[in-house]
Design goal:
Elements lengths: L6 E5 L6 H14 L7 E5 L5 H7 L5 E5 L16 H6 L4 E4 L2 H7 L3 H13 L3 E6 L3 H5 L3 H16 L8 E4 L13 H16 L3 H6 L1 E5 L4 H8 L6 E4 L6 H13 L2
Parallel strand pairs: 1-2, 1-8, 2-3, 3-4, 4-5, 5-6, 6-7, 7-8
Helix pairs in contact: 1-11, 5-7, 7-8, 10-11
This protein binds 2-phosphoglycolic acid.
């Protein structure tokens, strides 16, 4: 139990179609109580944002994007600006997901610039950090996470974290079915909070830190019961209504 309201965000990644999205959103709207004690966010691919924004109107579901341009406007082919995301109803944006870092070459510096852009434009960034399996095996997990956080802190400052979220996503647990144990996750979450607290203890105590990596309805309760785990960033299990609703319920019950 903590005084931080849990948040569950569904990261749909490169999945969905207009028909599938419509079925999924209808089921979520029906299944989520209006008084849910947790925030629920869906992050569909860019092209569906406007349509889903309309579909979640008057529901508890909020909208997020999976990525954002660091630049505001101009000759940046293929990019989508923060102001555009706001324009179509986004409130959140995932920044620095490990797939962006590993597959699209996003560096700590670029991730920090994207967080700064999101904040400046009124979007709530969900900043992802996490170690690879090799880094965990080399016992450098906490160093990696501190470095990833530090890169952003140095650019935006601790005050910015009052308006943002952090997601701890061990790369080895993403899409692999191999979840971090609640104790493994809590150890890193506590270190993330401690790293923030070294700059400002009040802000650190209020920041919501999500866990991501093979969260399912069946393991969510035990993860969300940990002191510094304030919800989840959900990939695969966010594509299926019953599973995602089960995770949202577990989050609400942890509060
Ligand atoms: P997963 O993905 O739940 O499918 O492991 C989580 C994420 O990448 O955000």
């Amino acid at each position: 139990m903590s005084n931080r309201r849990p948040l569950v965000a569904g990261n749909w990644k490169l999945n969905g179609s207009r028909a599938e999205n419509s079925t999924l959103i209808s089921a979520l709207r029906t299944g989520l109580p209006t008084q849910l004690r947790a925030d629920v966010v869906v992050c569909p691919p860019y092209v569906y944002l406007a349509e889903i924004s309309a579909a979640i109107h008057d529901s508890v579901i909020q909208l997020g994007a999976q990525n954002i341009a660091a630049e505001d406007a101009g000759a940046f082919t293929g990019e989508v600006a923060a102001s555009m995301l706001r324009d179509v109803g986004c409130e959140y944006v995932i920044v620095g997901h490990s797939e962006r870092r590993a597959l699209y070459g996003e560096t700590d510096v670029l991730v920090a610039a994207k967080v700064a852009t999101a904040l400046r434009c009124g979007l709530t960034p969900i900043l992802c950090v996490g170690e690879t399996l090799a880094e965990r095996d080399a016992a450098t997990t906490l160093d990696v996470v501190r470095r990833q956080l530090g890169a952003v802190l140095d650019v935006v400052g601790i005050e910015a974290f009052a308006a943002g979220l952090v997601a701890y996503e061990p790369v080895w647990a993403i899409g692999t079915g191999r979840t971090a144990t609640p104790i493994q996750a809590q150890e890193v979450h506590a270190e993330i909070r401690a790293t923030l607290a070294r700059r400002n203890a009040t802000i650190a105590a209020a920041v919501r830190i999500l866990y991501g990596g093979s969260v399912k309805a069946s393991n969510a309760k035990d993860l969300f019961a940990m002191a510094d785990i304030d919800g989840g960033l959900i990939g695969g299990a966010s594509l299926e209504a019953a599973g995602f609703l089960g995770i949202c319920k577990a989050a609400a019950e942890s509060y």
